[in-house]
Amino acid sequence: MSEINQRELERIHWLNMALSLPEEGVAGYFPDERSRIERLSEVRWPQGPTCGRCRGTSITWIETRSLFQCRSCRHQFSVTSDTSLHRTRLPLGMWFQAVESLIRYREGFFGDFHMPAQALAETLGVQYVAARRIRKVVLADIDIGGQGFLRSAVCVRAPDDPTRGYRI
Predict the structure, then answer these.
(1) Residue ranges covered by each domain of the chain
(2) How many Å is the maximal CA-CA distance in the chain?
(3) Which tens digit of pLDDT belongs to each residue from 48-100?
(4) What is this structure's pTM?
(5) Residue 101 vs residues 42, 105, 119, 123: alpha-carbon distances, Å
(6) Interatomic CA distance for residues 162 and 37, integer angstroms
(7) What are the φ/ψ torsions at residue 128 (nearest 5 degrees)?
(8) C-alpha 48, offset from chain centre
(9) CB-based contact 148:10 (threshold 8 Å)
(10) Nearest Cα to Cα of residue 106 among 8, 14, 9, 13
C-alpha cells in the first residue's frame, strides 16, 4: 500500500464529494421540501423510520405537521431529530444548498480554503451570523471524521473511493 499525507487525503475527500453531487445541482435534484425529507429519511433509516424513544418501527407520517409518529408510544419526531440539524428552523433546502456551495467552493481551490461565511451569507440570503453557524454545522458534518448525514443526503452519485488502499 502506498502512503499519502493528510493534505492529499483531504483533497481526495473533497474532490470525491464534488464528483458525487447531482449533475443538475441540489436544487434541481431535490426540487421541494418533501423530496429533501424523503432523502434524509432514506439516508437516516435505510430500513424505514424508527422511533428514537421506543425503537418501534410502526411509524406513520403526519402530513400537516411534517412529522413522523410512532404508533406504539405516540412519540412525534422529525427526520432531523437527534442529528446535527436538530431543532433547526431553516428549511432543508437552505441546508442542502449550503452543503453544495461549500463543496463547490472548496473544489475550486487546491488549498485548504473554506468558503467565507460572508460569501455563504450572500449565497443563501441570510445574515452573517446565521451563515457562520450554518457553515460550522455543515463543515463538522461533511469533513473527514464527520457524521456524514448531510454529505450522504446531498452526495447522491457514488464514484469509486480513490482513498481505498491508502494509509496516512
Answers:
(1) 6-45+84-154
(2) 54
(3) 999 999 999 999 999 999 999 999 999 999 999 999 999 999 999 999 999 99
(4) 0.88
(5) 22, 6, 10, 8
(6) 30
(7) -55, -45
(8) 19
(9) no
(10) 14
